[in-house]
Amino acid sequence: MPLDRGKERVVVLVDMDCFYVQVEQKANPELKGKPCAVVQYKTWQGGGIVAVSYEARAQGVKRGMRGMEAMRRCPGLQLAQIPEAHGKANLSRYRQASAEVLAVLSRFAVIERASIDEVYADLTAEAGRRLKQPGLLQQAVTLLGSTCVEGFPRDRDRDSRAPPLSALHREEARREGLQAWLDSLPADRDQGSPELLLTAGALMVEEMRAAVEAETGYRCSAGISHNKVLAKLSCGLNKPNRQTLLPMESVDRLFDTLPISTIRNLGGKLGESVSQLLQVHNMGQLRAFSQAQLHTSFGVKTGSWLFDLCRGLDFEPVRPRYFPKSIGCSKNFMGKEALTMCEQVKHWLLQLSTELEERLLQDQQQNGRTARQLAVALRLEEERQSRSFSRCCPLAGPDAQRLAQRAWTLIQACNTAQPPQAAWSPPVIGLSLSARDFLETSVVSARGITDFLTGSSSQSPGAGAAPNPGRVGGAQSPVRGLGPFGAHRAGTITSFFVHAPTNKTCPSPDPVTHTLPAQPSSLSIAPLTFPPPLSPTPPPVPETPPSPAPHPSPSHTPPLGRRDSEHTGPAEMDLPGLSFFKRKALARSPGQPPPDPPLSPSLPTEVLVRCARCGESTLPWQEAEHKDFHFALDLQRSLSTLPPPSPPARTKQKAVDQLRAPGKRARTGSKTLDWYFQKAPP
Ligand code: DCP
What is the pLDDT of residue 366? Predict the structure, then answer.
């Protein structure tokens, strides 16, 4: 029996529960079971809360509150603080915890690391295999001991306005729903049944989560469904320490009351625009629009995507990714913290470089890979607007002094202050350094490249072969899966997921839209004098209220110069502050990496992600926003040229008409594209 469209796969999202809190609780077991929160930078009103235990959530403590306010709400609240290093938050203990969890999960399936505490996996193949095992479902009701089935029993309504159930009632409802689900499964165990496959997947996920808790002490929740969107959505339905199976038959009812903003990829401006343009609030309301209407309003690609999405269909594959694509660190300088002197910029470049060096060395040691590119991004504040710039250059080693020097070389052209340039203008409100384009080093040399390209590894037992032939890092060879319970040492698993990019050339940036002052010749650059690497000198700025994460906007991210221009690649500087590095370079043994290639004008220094639609180059972390940019353009075009869709509901039609009426159009049309890049209010 062919599976219904969109129900072919079993996809899981595993998400750690109040992750940073759990890490702190593991480090300090006295915090366990207590209302507890993790704060960042404690000095201003008790710091900003970034993670909250479920006990504290029950008492009204929320992420984003100041520590002092949270203490007022919840007097017994325990506050743990994120460690700091180099004048900024140091997340290494959370990254370490994340790596421990990933190591466990990757024994069961090929995983896609979605964030520090979220992992996707496609379990289709292994679930299919398990279905063939005799007696699989006999113990299901016991084995699925933390599984909730959304929409079951069928007559139970999910009423978000109803008072929350007690833990006892929740457990009763869970069991009842699970039993009803199991009773509804086809008796003949037709192996093509999507529902049976989901159930087999849920059994696997129970095992995966139990292994994570047994081996790391961390608890997690999970969502099991047919695609990434539904998996992500369902994961959040019964947190903490529960997993939720979301069958396709329950999607319509769930979507009828589900705000559009809660769906993956619709949480920001895109979802806001869909709501505003179509005057809809819930996902289910989108079903009232025909595919042609959605095409008309959003273009064929986005329109088709929305048409499928509101029916629970999504076809994005799980892409094998074990390690982060880049290793980066950033710091914001809001308000009075903004950097206005070159020395401040250099100071922070070195702080960031020092952290980056530590993390790159650790990554090299643990994962056997070496970064080949350095990307620098900075946000400048000009006339109350922020503009972002970014540049890349080749990178041969993680030495902090050298990283800082290269970063400085790359960004100097952004300084428009008059000579002698002790000052920096416009003020810097965000700095970010990131290393990427990783090359396998130790693993490749130890095992030979053929294994990696063919996947013919003796370490891949095959039982859990990846269902999806994902491609990673631009490599053209399919990735083989990992067998469940196969042993993988840290540092060898990387071979399955990351391939050495072959001769990746730097795409040339598009013509510059924002002109920058010409880079002065290298002779006119002020000598670079970084403080010594372990300088105890505190940053010359006090702590102020927390700032949002760097949010560079693609529309404001022109390259810093034309690649073919003589000003593109500032020449390597021979500067007194580099003596430390030079000594090291002179002492380099033959086995050590060569020095960084010079940033000579003839070298391509931009290595950015090229947009297929417009050819514009952006940094990888700006890709998503860049897509929003195109969406915004599409919207503007559709507003100005196309007839409205005709949704059935009269009020809806009226609202859409109003939105498109000439008098009203100016309102939407008058928004600049910048509007689309502003963060949605929380
Ligand atoms: N985090 C952060 N700043 C944010 C959001 C999150 O520092 N604005 C950190 C702290 C979180 C971790 O990332 O513990 C994971 O974020 P999640 O959004 O997954 O939230 P939690 O794991 O804390 O809670 P939940 O159980 O709701 O997933």
Answer: 81
**Does ligand 1 lie within 6 Å of residue 239's CB atom?**
yes
In this predicted structure, what is the pLDDT of residue 365?
A: 84
Mutate which of 14, 20, 233, 242 for ligand 1? The one with the most ligand atoms within 8 Å of its CB, which is 20
Helix (H) or strand (E) holding 216: helix 194-216
Per-residue pLDDT, 103 = 95
Q: Which regions of the chain are under pLDDT 70? A: 1-3, 155-165, 189-192, 442-682
C-beta of 51 in contact with ligand 1 (< 6 A): yes
Give dist(CA 153, CA 171) in Å, integer. 13
CA distance 535 to 678: 37
- The atom number, within ligand 1, closest to the CA of 117 reads 15
pLDDT of residue 136: 80
If one counts every other C-beta atom within 10 angstroms of the C-beta of residue 16, the result is 25
Pocket test for ligand 1, best of 16, 49, 241 (most atoms within 8 A of CB): 16
Residue listed under structure tokens 């915004």: 632
H-state helical runs in 578-649: 579-586, 623-641
Residue nearest to atom 2 of ligand 1 (CA): 50
Ligand 1 contact, 295 CB (< 6 A) = no
Rounded CA gap, 616 and 510, in Å?
A: 6
What residue spans of 113-193 are helical by DSSP H? 124-131, 140-143, 167-184
Pairing of strands 36-40, 78-81: parallel
Q: How far apart (Å, rounded) are the C-alpha atoms in residues 529 and 526?
A: 9
How crowded is residue 30: how many other Cβ atoms within 10 Å of its Cβ? 9
Distance 314 CA to ligand 1 centre (A): 25
The Cα 260–Cα 258 span in angstroms is 6
Q: How far is CA 13 from CA 245, 246, 620, 669, 672, in A?
A: 11, 12, 23, 38, 36
Neighbours of 493 (CB within 10 A): 23
CA separation, residue 602 to residues 39, 439, 517, 593, 626 (Å): 47, 24, 19, 22, 28
**How far, in Å, from the CA of 116 to the mean position of ligand 1?**
9
Residue nearest to atom 26 of ligand 1 (CA): 17
Task: Tell the burial category of 356 from Cβ atoms under 10 Å away from its Cβ (0-12, 13-18, 19+).
Answer: buried
